[in-house]
Amino acid sequence: MITALLFIWSSVLMFWYWYNRRHLVKLGSQIPGPPAYPIIGNGLAFWGKPEEVFGRLKDMYLMYSRLIAIWLGPKLHVALFEAKDVEKVLKLKTVEKADEYKYLKPWLGESLLISKGNKFKFNKKLIMPAFHINNLKRFLDVFNDHSLTLVETLREQVGKGEFDIDQYFSTCTMDILLETVMGISKDTIGDQAYAYSQAVHKLSRLAHMRIYKFWLRPELIFRFSKVKKEQDKYLAVVHGLTEKVIKQRKKAYESKIQQGDYNESEEKWTVFMDSLLKAKDENGLCLTDEDIKAEVVTMMFAGQDTTSTTLGFTLSLLGIHQDVQDKVMAELDEVFENPNAPVTYNDIQRLHYLEQVIQETWRLYPPIPMVAKKPSTDIDLDICTLPKDCTVGIMIMGVHRDPNQYPRPFKFNPDNFLPDNIKARNPFSFLPFSAGSRTCIGAKYATLLIKVMLATLLRSYRVTATRRERDFKLAGQTVLKRKEGFLVSLHLKDEYSASISQ
């Protein structure tokens, strides 16, 4: 009797599972993609080291070009590579963040990166003023100071051949973020700065692992895994320091208010955390401590890895393409009469060619190679229909190499971002910070920081690199990296010019 009941119950569950998935499976089978195995789907493609997985995905992109269906276990993922398809998806109001972002939630909380609906709208409204350009200008002194420190630190590598510059960039950007986001410096927290930076890198790797290793997705399995133990260890570092600083600054802020000593106009610059502490809507509602922690942790993650990666790829490309570097240096010589002068906002506005170089770097090597969406309704494309509740992956790196938008899409060419060329393209063909309501609010901050650091560095050093782009071993985790590191050689600018002229 019990056996019969179990059989009936199992049959009912199987029928219910099949019935609710029949629409997804039917439409998914009509989308081009590699053959999928029962139960695991295409899961084997994601087995191995990050650079191996990235290589397989790259091969798939070259084979299918416009879009591709990939099954991770029972979950359907559809990757899009063309701007016109991406535009249609991102313009729909029935599209939200994909479910996969929930695996970042233990780390990044309900931040703008993850939250949805009214929560997202409320937080964004209160946070946006902190990223106003007038507020960002206040950080230029910090950017300049740390960039000059970086130049001095890098002197130890001049003339010594190729080295991985990534660690230098990571350290410098983390120091800048600690000061501008949290209002602390490595001088005051010592080894905690390095521990924090390492924890951020580790959490990024672990989150990526859980998203793509679908067997780690169920909470019951993940809870008893080694990955969960590692995650908890690094969360304690990141959240511990952040919560401590929030308490300190909140106490100091409230004390100033009570004593009548607070005057924002007299402050040289405002720390992001302070902006979040005092943010209120028209009804007097403010962000909770948990909201502030989530946004601060997200800024620290997004700001460090994306910035250092962009700097690494940019210098690598300039080291390969000396003709482009010549043009950058000519522009720097024209803008800066004094080669040692700090970079002002007016200077940044005049660095047009340097901005083109940065944009072209983002095109070929976007820091975030993919973003994921979930449609609550079917989406009709001209060649197929994307079923509701699937995960739609916007393959930014593929979109940026769409031959319909970029002639010779694999060639590094900053002229792709001349004004006339930009106007001629679909606006959704360039998405380094995503697009629509979900556009990264830190885009201006990142652009200012990257420009200041490059303008400071390239007025002192000439960069060379021996590895061609075809030799780059890309590893697409949460942020795009080079497995071998960003290998460049540095030369004193004046001495290099003299040796070339002889």
UniProtKB/TrEMBL annotation:
It comes from the Eukaryota. InterPro entries: Cyt_P450, Cyt_P450_CS, Cyt_P450_E_grp-I, Cyt_P450_sf, Cytochrome_P450_Monoox. The keyword Zinc-finger does not apply. Keywords: Heme, Iron, Metal-binding, Monooxygenase, Oxidoreductase. Pfam families: p450. SUPFAM superfamilies: Cytochrome P450. Its cofactor is heme. GO terms for molecular function: heme binding; iron ion binding; monooxygenase activity; oxidoreductase activity, acting on paired donors, with incorporation or reduction of molecular oxygen. Heme binds at C440. Belongs to the cytochrome P450 family. This is Cytochrome P450. It comes from Aquatica leii.
